[in-house]
Amino acid sequence: MTRLLAAACLFVGLLSPTLASANPEPTAYDTRSISMGLTGTTYMERPSALVLNPANMEGIKKLGFTFNFTGIFTRQIAPVQGPNTDGRSSLGFGPIPSGFIAARIAPRVVFAAGLVIETGYGSSFDNVVCLDGAPVGGGPDYTPDTDPATCTNPNPEDLNVTFFVGEASIGTSYRIHDKFWLGVALRLPFSKQVADLYQNVGAALNQVAYGRVKNDLSGVGFPSPRIGITIKPHHKVNIGIMYRMWSRIKLVGDTTTTDLPDIPLLNDQTLAATADWNVPHALQFGVSYKANHRLLLAWELRLQFHGAPNQGNLNQTVNSSLPLANGNTFDVTTVVGFGWKTVWSAKFGVEYRFKKDLLAFRGGLNVAEAAATGAWAQYFTPPPGVSVTGMAGLGFYWDDRNNPEVKDKYQLDIGTLFAYSGTKLGDEYIGQEATIPGTNDTQILCSEDQVVRTGCPGRIGVFTYWTSISFTLQY
Question: What one-character-per-residue DSSP string does 168-235 give?
Answer without folding.
Answer: EEEEEEEEEETTEEEEEEEEEEEEEEEEEEEEEGGGGGTS--EEEEEEEEEEEE--EEEEEEEEEEET
